[in-house]
Specification:
alpha/beta, globular, 30% helix, six-stranded mixed beta sheet, 17 strands, 16 helices
Length: 479
């Protein structure tokens, strides 16, 4: 089976398939020379424990029935159609590589507006965002549109003492820019009221980024608590009228979050060097240019919203815009309203009709990719897992459950002798093709050399690792 993507979805599906189907062989393709996807490039550097799942992935990769093929972009370096004759199955597990936009004026042409996804990738060393170099010295105010946990990760990074971040695996270039940041206040802004956000938070959710991301994005207890406990950082109180009078009657998770927010920060405003706020019932209307420098951002305009319905504290309360506008002066803004997967070139040749609107591969909800026909018949041997299967939502544990679900479908179909593809030689049959195109595949042993080199670089700086942030530097270790 070919697995496209080396993040949690790919590894967990591979693990379950190898456990369920005797003698199953996995060839895992990754466009970068390094594995682990979002675990490496998306998890906040100050949350190293979240990366413990890599221990399981290392265990999977140690099997003689597993082959890692890094530095090969399927659909670009190798046509997708070239895989089909050589595998019984292909699993699409490559995650979400783009972010959703607000679609408002000024978003695409003003300096000072950044994608939260790109910002996170930048400080985590994702090669494609190495040159982002966000301008953090332009002013003291920052605005984040969206209230999911990625938004709170960005806020925490902007507000944290950079000396504490130096102990993490955050890139040196990011630490340098953050050390010069002038940002002192961060506003994290959402469309709904706090009770609509809080009531939608599953107890194990990390970031609920669906097609209606700005409507549904929700922060979680851990992320809020960490921000509230930041040293020398205060939290602006939320209007008490936005909370129900009897918090004690709320279900456990909403009650805990409400109590956290109403209690506020451990640092009083009088003793704080920086501050942040969660601002509710605001919909972004426009990014506005500076009069002095028309190419630069100077403010954001929002429409105030109002709640209606039998119970304004209920999650089902309707949110409607009013005619009242409010302006947030700022030269720095982040869009954090969800991620989005993209199609791989050549999918249509395999009969896959990628859903561009939702950013997912059509499937039967259990990972079997469905055909272009009206009856939605499954395409033999083609499966999907993770965010490209269900949309970018949930924590790594949710992705694991989803991956196991897809793996069970594969194992069940194999056991029932359902139709698969007829190929059997996998990578061995594609080596010559790759060599003809002068591709340089990176094996798992190669990755371990890169891994060791990063750890050595980090040791010299008193941190766990110092990542290579460009593909040539990664490959240079192997020369």
């Amino acid at each position: 089976m070919a697995v496209l993507g080396s993040g949690p979805a790919g590894f967990y599906t591979a693990y379950k398939v190898m456990s369920s189907i005797e003698n199953a062989i996995i060839d895992m393709y990754e466009c970068l020379p390094v594995p682990f996807g979002l675990v490496r490039f998306g998890v906040a550097p100050d949350h190293p424990e979240v990366k413990n799942c890599q221990d399981k992935f290392e265990e999977v990769a140690s099997s003689p029935r597993f082959n890692f093929l890094g530095n090969i972009a399927i659909g670009k370096d190798l046509p997708l159609a070239h895989l089909r004759p050589h595998y019984n199955a292909i699993l699409f597990a490559y995650g979400a590589t783009k972010d959703r936009k607000l679609g408002i004026s000024g978003e695409d042409n003003l300096k000072g507006i950044y994608s939260a996804r790109e910002f996170v990738g930048w400080y985590n060393g994702l090669p494609e965002h190495q040159a982002l170099a966000p301008e953090l010295e332009s002013g003291e105010e920052a605005v984040i549109v969206g209230q999911g946990n990625v938004a709170l990760d960005v806020a925490r990074t902007l507000l944290s003492d950079v000396n504490n971040l130096r102990k993490t695996d955050m890139t040196d270039y990011a630490l340098d820019i953050l050390s010069k940041s002038r940002v002192k206040r961060v506003s994290v802004i959402g469309r709904r009221g706090p009770m609509q956000v809080i009531s939608s938070v599953p107890s194990n959710a990390r970031d609920n980024c669906t097609i209606d991301a700005f409507l549904q994005a929700s922060f979680t207890i851990r992320e809020v608590r960490e921000l509230l406990n930041l040293s020398s950082v205060s939290f602006e109180p939320i209007d008490p009228a936005l909370f129900p009078p009897n918090v004690a009657k709320l279900p456990r998770t909403p009650k805990r979050l409400t109590q956290l927010l109403t209690k506020g920060s451990s640092t009083p405003a009088s003793q704080a060097r920086k501050s942040w706020s969660l601002d509710f019932l605001l919909s972004p209307r426009s990014f506005n240019a500076s009069n002095a420098t028309p190419s630069n951002l100077s403010s954001l305009t929002f429409l105030k919203n109002e709640l209606s319905g039998p119970d304004k504290f209920d999650s089902s309360a309707t949110v409607s815009p009013t005619a009242t506008e409010i302006s947030y002066p700022t030269s720095l803004a982040f869009r954090s309203i969800g991620y989005k997967s993209e199609a791989i070139a050549g999918m249509k040749d395999l009969g896959i009709d990628f859903d561009e609107r939702q950013g997912i591969i059509p499937n039967d909800l259990h990972g079997r990719i469905t055909s272009l026909s009206d009856d939605g018949t499954g395409i033999p041997g083609l499966y999907c897992s993770g965010w490209v299967k269900r949309g970018p939502a949930g924590v790594i544990a949710n992705t694991m459950e989803d991956a196991f679900d897809t793996a069970e479908s594969i194992a069940k179909d194999w056991g029932n002798k359902e139709p698969f593809m007829s190929g059997a030689n996998g990578w061995d049959a594609l080596r010559e093709d790759a060599a003809t195109q002068s591709l340089r595949p990176v094996t798992w042993d190669d990755w371990k050399k890169i891994d060791e080199a990063e750890k050595e670089r980090g040791k010299a700086k008193g941190k766990k690792r110092e990542k290579f942030t460009s593909i040539p530097d990664m490959l240079g270790v192997l020369d």
